[in-house]
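Justification of computing resources. Each target in the renewal requires a structure prediction run like the one illustrated here; the chain below, 252 residues long, is used simply to show the kind of job we budget for.
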Amino acid sequence: MRARLLTRSGTPASSAGASVVVDLTAGLLTQLAFAALGLVLLARQLGRADDPSALALGLALFGLVLLAFVAAQRHGLFTLLVRPARRLAGGRSWQRLIGSLAALDAEIALRYRQRRALGVCAAWRALGWLGGGLEIWLAFLVLGHPIPITEAIILESFGQAARSAGFVIPGGLGVQEGGILMSGVWLGLPPEIVLAAALLKRARELVCGVPGLIAWSCLDGPARRAPQSSPSAERDPVAATQQPPSPGVIEL
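Resulting structure tokens:
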């Protein structure tokens, strides 16, 4: 959706896709650092490091996988992924796909070479994670149970780490709250207060997210409903022979 909104503003598709991929990677890298910060603060808070040792191992493994993902992006990840499939099926459609993915890989490599812009992106991402900790701190303050900002960062870091680990669940529903509740129990906080703070955070996400989805629907809906001819169908005889969608069906 983010890449599509960028293309609506005139950004080339390969540039839009590359920007989203690199921004997502920067978000994961800074989240890893934020989770490590939370782990260090938790170990200092508990006075020992035996309880979160398994989490430390998990973070280390995740960091290795993430570094491998970054290295693969810099060496043409998307083109490499589609090449085995190209050997099984020929045709101009595969050639066009290879070309578009090669352009995407080139744009991704270009953005990794723009160190200053990449640093600014990572800085904003890091501020976003820290802002989530401030949000947790405010939630506890509103609930009449103020906590130190260090404990709020611990709660936020583990909640976001759990949400990323449970990415297969839409929105991390229940997973984010479970991570916050687990770290709250380690800190000795009342479980009902921790859960209430986690639900306040989720309510804020809905308040901000639902209007965004409505705005996107208003921007993108008319373009999807309007009948339009596909230039690729005119150039591709295979696409031209395909049956058009039946009336009333919106092709996504």
